[in-house]
Sequence to fold (606 residues):
Amino acid sequence: MVKKNNSMFKENIITNNPILVQVLGICSTLAVTNSVKNTIVMCIGLIFTVSLSSFSLSIIRKLIPSKVRMIIEVLVISFWVIIVDLALKAYLPEISKQLGPYVGLIITNCIVMGRTEAFGLQNPPIPSFLDGLTSGLGYSIVLIFIAIIRELLGAGSIYGFKLLGSNWVSWNIMIMAPGAFFLLALIIWIVKGYFLPKIEKK
Amino acid sequence: MNISSIAILFGSIITGNILLSYYLGMCSFLSISRELKSAIGLGVAVTFVMAITTPLNWIVYNIILVPLNITYLRFIVFIMVIAGIVQILEMIIERFSQTLYYSLGIFLPLITVNCAILGVNLFMIIRQYSFINSIFYGIGSGIGWLLAITLLAAIKQKISKNILPKGVEGAAISLIISGIMAIAFMGFSGIIPIN
Amino acid sequence: MKKDKINDLFKNLIVVIIISIILISILAIIYSFTQDRIKENETIFKKKAVLIAAGFALPAKYSQIIELYNSSIKEIGVQNKVEIFSYINKQIDQENVLSKGYILIFSGPGLWGEITMALAIANDLETIAGIEIISQNETPGLGGRIVESWFKNQFKGKNKISKIISEKEIPAEDEIASITGATNTTKYVLNLINIGKQYIKSFNLPKLD
Fold:
């Protein structure tokens, strides 16, 4: 059991990273990463959603007729996302306003659909929960990394704390869409081109 | 609302392109084959779904959810409406064009979870568009997405003969192309005048 | 065969409906627990916006904010979809023209939708005491930056604004600095302030003593 978990951990976070390798969940990766604070909240929301969706769908997986499988998945995922949305509105209203519609878009985040479909519907609840958790972690690590770069270069701060002095000329392009595209492309390139082949050689 | 519907139409295609400015709809965008025909086919299907679901969900939201005070359920309700429309579209395409049905294959049911469609529906609510404007916004966003995905497929087709450095092929090059397109589209932002 | 198909369709529909009902019921229960808190957040958000626009320094606790609001702000009414308040700010010197005045909450066009603003005008009915952005849908990271303190604060005490300069420079009495890359949104905000000033004139509000 420990061996299985270990390799799942490694796979979902490194060798089969949802964003860098499977290329899922890109929409939110680009949208929220111009602020570290928003990114962290988004990541927590996503980990919560994907692990609990996988878990709950796995429990009822034997009861779902295959034709309506996708609709049920979407229903359950929407359920958890609404809970996240209500929790944010109630306890973190300012962040809820800043994340705006992107919280609702966790529903269509391909990672959530992808993991519940690929793993949750075929495996027992606890492993499904862990699979969701580790995938979410893989997603979060990449997101926070990108957010740190974007916020630092684009606004001179991390999590709102100004780190670079007022003489720093911010790279506004990092806050805008193109900067996000280029940065993510660069990271995927480096990881796929250099790091992954090295790991595979081991 | 002082913002004219035409401004919304053009805005959603060019200056506020749902994909290049708001990052929605990237997943199928990145994994689409280099074939121009399937890209256009997918884009047209998405445009249809957006154009129909946006005003439909406007009605559902304003006439059912708001009076009953259950707007917090909008995520579930919207996605169910989208799923229903996609199902109907699937049946229509299967009936009228077998070739299109087969070439779109798995992508058709996946339109349901295309973040762009749910995103457009949610943005429409947040920006409090009127019914007429929601129609223009839905159509415009669809056309904008279609435009972006067609351009990407065309460019990818052109460079498919080139040799790319290791690691760049696939997602990375698509993102770089998208980034350059995003910059290009930002050049249009001066078009929309202030009232 | 056809009977099987209809049977299947029926079964599928029943499963979807049952699961939907269960999920929606759970959500309704959760909503009933959180809705009070959510409504409270909305109310205090608006009250905070009104206080901030008028230049008050906000206390830390929720109850203190409500107390400050109740003792300093008077809700006058709504006209033409504009909410009107008057304020008396005892935190600053009463000789200062910004110490009393009116606050309007109203909406107007922005680049991507409406911008809702709380505009505080001093007792001379000309000088801006401050602004606070209540809601906006501008481009995140660009126009969305109109909520940043430096941007809002630069309107304090200004009367007539005739020029928009770049973000890097320090604006004079009749200038404001725009957000780099978001000149359009900045213009919309200025436009909105002018709309607010016109409302003040058209409502014929009396000077406060």
